[in-house]
Amino acid sequence: MTWWGIVVAAGVGTFLIRYLPLLSGTRLARGEGWLSRFLGALGLAAIAALIALSMSDLWWQAPHWRGGVRLALGAAAVLLVQRLTPNVGLATLVGAGVYGAAGWALAD
Length: 108
Hints:
Structural class: mainly alpha
Radius of gyration: 22 Å
Strand content: under 5%
Oligomer: single chain
Number of strands: 0
Order of helices and strands: HHHH
Number of helices: 4
Helix content: over 70%
Distance between the termini: 67 Å
Shape: elongated
């Protein structure tokens, strides 16, 4: 490849690095395309994964009441924050924080 070919390839690459996110951003703003559907389901999938991981304390060999209390408090925090604000990310973050704080507070 010649020197000019490298310069043109670098220019095209730089243009695409800037243009493709802009193009995806306008599609996301309109709410169309597979990426918009994926990002829309991502918050709910994160909450479901946190609940499934939190429930693991309930089905091990010696389940303890503390696991159920932590799960209930974390789920209640998620539902409360989701009810007050439409931000799924904030609801997930607060629910995980409450779950962790409850685990720390209820530790032996």
